[in-house]
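Table 4 source record.
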Amino acid sequence: MRLHFISRLALLITGSFLVVATQEGIWTGSPLKWMFIAGGALAIVAAAADAMLDSLQQRGLDLITALVGAWMIVEVAVLGQADVKWWSFGSAVAITALSAIGLTIHEWSTERVVHELRVTHHEEARREADTPQVMPA
């Protein structure tokens, strides 16, 4: 679970950086292309590392993340300079959104487990307190 959280957080930070990088005039041309090649590779690796989870929702997000990561690599290799800016922006927003959704699903499942542990513990303690203790004579 920790690997899943860290990889989603890394993708969220990377995607956010790439969103800003597409809109700044500092990174254009070749540097922007190399950033998106590295970002796409990171998305594929992170999705592959998380693909072994039990959750069907997380595995679906991992598949979509890997596809968007592959698209990020293909788009910078195939599209022209004028098109790369906006297609890259869209891909970066998609990676950021998928990562945020994945983190939200992860937190919901983690919180549910913690809540179930607390409720179960408190109910057992209450039952023990309500059960009359029979003292041997």
